[in-house]
């Protein structure tokens, strides 16, 4: 295993045999061995993908700023001045250019969200499989598997998204009804608090369907099933351990959000300064990006272990 820590693996059974044959004898790891920390290169690959996507989305905006402020002795520093007067003035006078740039950025991000299913699936394949006689599945095999699974992953995303929209819509409607019904008897403040609690409860339900979506993604990687069947298997795995799986997803998401908030506070303190402050800000930003990717990979590994452990004895 080229000096790497040994991991246990097994020959897959059931539907996974087809995946193994098509990906040059991939071997399924045992459930405890499905760990994100085994795949730092796959995490680095996700960082490369997200960095490239961010550059494609942001470079036009940087070019527009350079064209507008390149001749200023202070560069774009006025845009960071307290009050934001220079920023508002620039946005107003360059409205058409800014709108075009943001439109292009939106297209890049939407396309990236769709195409991003491929590297995400490839990461999960790297976590769950190794090539026979090798410590890892390999980027080529993993990406090939990601391309093959993309239609199922896309259908799963659409299904989960529709269910979440319906749940949130029902929550908003029910919350409005509760607020309207209790407004006269409990007062405006209490009625709005009840409305918020109802909506919060439905948001929690919607997040559970998001967890089921990731479990469905794990089912696609593990059993090579289609979108509808994957969503059903994800819900089934979630039903077995709902609180534990939801918490595994939630605490990682919370830590990732906390890192973004901390980085935002530090960026605000540093302001628009250059030199060492800019270097520190850049390093901090990249550390947050890598940490969030690692947290996401850790959760996907947890989803793979949950699906493999709960459904391996009764494969689809």
Short description:
This protein is an all-alpha fold and 316 residues long. Helices cover 77% and strands 3% of the residues.
Topology, please?
Elements (H helix, E strand, L loop, with lengths): L8 E2 L5 H7 L3 E4 L10 H30 L15 H9 L1 H21 L1 H12 E3 L7 H48 L1 H36 L3 H14 L1 H29 L5 H36 L5
Antiparallel strand pairs: 1-2, 2-3
Helix pairs in contact: 2-4, 2-5, 2-10, 5-6, 5-7, 5-10, 6-7, 6-8, 7-8, 7-10, 8-9, 8-10, 9-10
Side by side, the strands of the main sheet go 1-2-3
Count of separate structural domains: 1
Q: Which percent range fits the helix content?
A: over 70%
Biggest sheet record: 3 strands, antiparallel
Say how many strands there are. Answer: 3
Percent strand equals under 5%
Head-to-tail CA distance between termini: 32 Å
In terms of per-residue confidence, which ranges show pLDDT below 50 for 5 or more consecutive residues?
1-6, 11-23
Class of secondary structure makeup: mainly alpha
Shape verdict: globular
Rg from Cα: 23 Å
| Overall pLDDT confidence | 82
What are the salient characteristics of this protein?
316 residues, mainly alpha, three-stranded antiparallel beta sheet, 3 strands, disordered N terminus
């Amino acid at each position: 295993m080229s000096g790497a820590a040994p991991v246990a693996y097994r020959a897959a059974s059931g539907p996974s045999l087809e995946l193994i044959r098509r990906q040059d004898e991939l071997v399924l790891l045992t459930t405890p061995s499905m760990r994100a920390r085994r795949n730092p290169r796959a995490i680095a690959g996700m960082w490369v993908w997200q960095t490239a996507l961010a550059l494609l989305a942001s470079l036009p905006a940087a070019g527009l700023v350079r064209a507008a402020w390149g001749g200023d002795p202070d560069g774009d520093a006025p845009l960071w001045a307290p009050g934001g007067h220079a920023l508002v003035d620039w946005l107003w006078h360059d409205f058409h250019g800014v709108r075009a740039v943001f439109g292009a950025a939106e297209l890049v991000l939407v396309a990236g969200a769709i195409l991003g299913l491929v590297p995400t699936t490839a990461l999960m394949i790297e976590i769950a499989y190794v090539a026979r006689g090798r410590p890892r599945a390999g980027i080529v095999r993993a990406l090939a598997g990601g391309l093959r699974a993309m239609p199922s992953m896309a259908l799963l995303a659409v299904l989960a998204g529709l269910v979440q929209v319906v749940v949130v819509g029902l929550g908003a409607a029910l919350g409005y009804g509760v607020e309207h019904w209790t407004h006269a008897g409990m007062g405006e403040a209490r009625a709005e608090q009840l409305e918020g609690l109802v909506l919060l409860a439905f948001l929690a339900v919607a997040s559970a369907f998001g967890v089921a979506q990731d479990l469905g993604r794990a089912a696609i990687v593990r059993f090579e099933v289609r979108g509808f069947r994957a969503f059903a298997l994800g819900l089934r795995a979630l039903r077995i351990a709902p609180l534990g799986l939801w918490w595994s997803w939630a605490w990682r998401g919370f830590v990732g959000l906390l890192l973004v908030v901390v980085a935002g506070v530090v960026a605000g303190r540093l302001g628009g300064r250059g030199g060492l402050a800019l270097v520190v800000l850049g390093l901090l930003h990249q550390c947050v990006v890598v940490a969030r990717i690692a947290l996401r990979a850790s959760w996907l590994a947890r989803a793979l272990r949950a699906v493999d452990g709960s459904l391996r004895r009764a494969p689809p």
